[in-house]
C-alpha cells in the first residue's frame, strides 16, 4: 500500500514537471515569435526616415512608426502561419502560441492602418499584407490559382518590389517629382532584394526542403555573389549621379556608407550557415538589419560635429 502511494506520488511529480517544462517551452517559443520581427520593424522605420531624407522631405515620425507596425505585422504573421521551410530555418519558434502572435499582429496592424488612414495613405498599408499572403499561402478560385512562392528568385523579387513600393510610397506621397521617387524605389528595392538573398544563404536547407528556388539554391554561391555585386554597384552608381546633379538631397554619407556596408555583406556573408563561424551571425545582424540605424546614427553625429 505504501509503495503504491509512493509510486503514485512519483508519477504525479514527473507529470507535473513535464507540464511545467512544456509550458515553459511554449512560453519561450511564443516570446521568440513576438520578438523575432522587432529588429526588422525598427530597421524599416529608419529606412522610411532615410527615404524622407533622400527626397528632401521633412520626416514624419508618425509615418515611420506606422510603417514599422505594418512591417512587424507582415513578418510576424508570416512566421506565425509556419511555412514548411520554417520548420528547419526557425526551430526556435516550434511550439509557439500562434493565436497570440496573430492577435498581437492584428493589434499592430490596426494601429498602423489608423495612423496611415489619417494621413491619406490607407491603401499602402494593405500592399505588403496582401503580397505577403499571396506569397505564403496564395489564393485559389475554381481553376484559377495564384501563389507567388517557388519561382527562381521570386522571393527576393517580391521582397524588393513590395518593400520598395511601401517605403518609397510612405516617404514620397508629398513629392511632386516622379524621378527622385523612382530612384529611391530602385535604391531600396535593390537593397532589400540583396538583403533577402543574403539571408537565403542562412536558409538554404529549409528552402531546399520546401522546394523554394532561391538564388543560392539554384545558381550557387559564386554566381549569386556576382549578381548581387552587379546590382549593388549599378544602383549606387545611379544614386551617386543623381546626388551630384541635385536630383536627390545631398546625403553623401547615406550613399557612401550604404555602398561600403553592402560590399562587405555581399563578400563576407554569402556563405551557407553551417560554414560560418558563430561571430558572423552577429555581423550579419549588425550589417544587414542594423545598417539603417548606423546610417542615421552617423548622420546625427556628423551633423552635431559640423554644427
Automatic annotation (TrEMBL):
Gene3D superfamilies: UbiA prenyltransferase (1.20.120.1780). One of its GO terms (molecular function) is transferase activity, transferring alkyl or aryl (other than methyl) groups. InterPro entries: UbiA_prenyltransferase (IPR000537). It is found in: Cell membrane. The chain crosses the membrane at residues 100-117, 123-140, 152-172, 178-199, 227-248. The keyword Membrane applies. It is a multi-pass membrane protein. It comes from the Archaea. Keywords: Membrane, Transferase, Transmembrane, Transmembrane helix. The keyword Cell wall biogenesis/degradation does not apply. It holds the Pfam family UbiA. One of its GO terms (cellular component) is plasma membrane. CDD domains: PT_UbiA_5. This is UbiA family prenyltransferase.
Amino acid at each position: 500500500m505504501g509503495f503504491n502511494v509512493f509510486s503514485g506520488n512519483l508519477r504525479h511529480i514527473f507529470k507535473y514537471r513535464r507540464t511545467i517544462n512544456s509550458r515553459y517551452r511554449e512560453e519561450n517559443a511564443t516570446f521568440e515569435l513576438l520578438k523575432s520581427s522587432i529588429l526588422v520593424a525598427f530597421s524599416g522605420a529608419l529606412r522610411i526616415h532615410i527615404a524622407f531624407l533622400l527626397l528632401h522631405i521633412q520626416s514624419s515620425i508618425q509615418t515611420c512608426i506606422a510603417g514599422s507596425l505594418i512591417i512587424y505585422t507582415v513578418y510576424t504573421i508570416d512566421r506565425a502561419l509556419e511555412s514548411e521551410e520554417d520548420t528547419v530555418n526557425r526551430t526556435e519558434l516550434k511550439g509557439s502560441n500562434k493565436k497570440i502572435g496573430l492577435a498581437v499582429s492584428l493589434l499592430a496592424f490596426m494601429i498602423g492602418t489608423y495612423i496611415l488612414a489619417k494621413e491619406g495613405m490607407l491603401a499602402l498599408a494593405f500592399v505588403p499584407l496582401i503580397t505577403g499572403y499571396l506569397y505564403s499561402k496564395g489564393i485559389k478560385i475554381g481553376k484559377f490559382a495564384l501563389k507567388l512562392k517557388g519561382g527562381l528568385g521570386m522571393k527576393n523579387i517580391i521582397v524588393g518590389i513590395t518593400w520598395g513600393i511601401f517605403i518609397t510610397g510612405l516617404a514620397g506621397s508629398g513629392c511632386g517629382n516622379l524621378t527622385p521617387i523612382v530612384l529611391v524605389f530602385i535604391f531600396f528595392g535593390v537593397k532589400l532584394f540583396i538583403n533577402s538573398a543574403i539571408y537565403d544563404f542562412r536558409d538554404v536547407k529549409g528552402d531546399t526542403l520546401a522546394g523554394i528556388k532561391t538564388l543560392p539554391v539554384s545558381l550557387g554561391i559564386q554566381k549569386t555573389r556576382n549578381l548581387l555585386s552587379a546590382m549593388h554597384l549599378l544602383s549606387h552608381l545611379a544614386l551617386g549621379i543623381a546626388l551630384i546633379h541635385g536630383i536627390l538631397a545631398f546625403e553623401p554619407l547615406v550613399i557612401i556608407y550604404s555602398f561600403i556596408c553592402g560590399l562587405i555583406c555581399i563578400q563576407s556573408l554569402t556563405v551557407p550557415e553551417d560554414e560560418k563561424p558563430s561571430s558572423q551571425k552577429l555581423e550579419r545582424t549588425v550589417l544587414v538589419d542594423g545598417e539603417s540605424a548606423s546610417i542615421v546614427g552617423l548622420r546625427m553625429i556628423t551633423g552635431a560635429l559640423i554644427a
